Amino acid sequence: MRILVVEDNPALADGLVTVLRSAGYAVDHAGDCEAALDIVGAERIDLVILDLNLPDRDGLEFLKATRRSKEAPIVLVLSAPSGCGKTTILNQVLHMLPGLVFSVSHTTRAPRPGERNGIDYHFVDDATFLRMRDQQPPGFLEWAEVHGNMYGTSVEEVERQQQAGLDVVLDIDVQGAGQVRDQTAPVTIFIAPPSLEELERRLRGRGSEAEAAVALRLANAREELVCADTYEYLIINDRLEDAVESLKGIIIAERSRHRRNPDGQPMRWHC
Question: Which residue from 123, 130, 220, 237 has the highest number of Cβ atoms inside 10 Å of its Cβ?
């Protein structure tokens, strides 16, 4: 494993480099963002230990720059209020674009009719979920409690998919999106209804939830819609076909910024 230490404090950097090398790791050091980007551009780096307060740029800017300059798989965060058609849109795009996978979340809620364990969700009990949440290092990239149930994205599952060279979609709420932003630089996409009135019509049209559940989902939707402007992309699901094409186009555009083909494979130049 090759590790890059990005730290402008010489004493702290020397200590980290010494300890890591004594443990058998190959280690590079950069004192600022520009030097770190040069190393990342020239070497295959497996792990970065990053100081967020660098002299030339914020550490998060380094993460964004590496995300957009390397052939690394993309992490996409997709959020929407309940009833906006997010799952339907995503499922269609997953069938259209090779190299794109859905990260199956863990949840403590009971399976709905037709849902399959390991396909739609990893269904676990409260004790298992809390053990994963509280272990060190944490077992979840993000987690949140929604409508009385807990949901979380497994670190192990996301890393496994990325190591296979796949672009990963995280279907998570606004709470989880904020946690992921704090740790990495995902592509963030928010799907919204054309209006709250239309969202209410869709929720009631399901005919599967009590009045109290519908009211709770509408109240949560109002809070989530306030967060829409914190996302990089906004899709209004007025017509399903248009929303599907919008999401597909966003992913293709982001792959182009990564110098990747629309089929998810890195570009290979033969000169």
Answer: 237
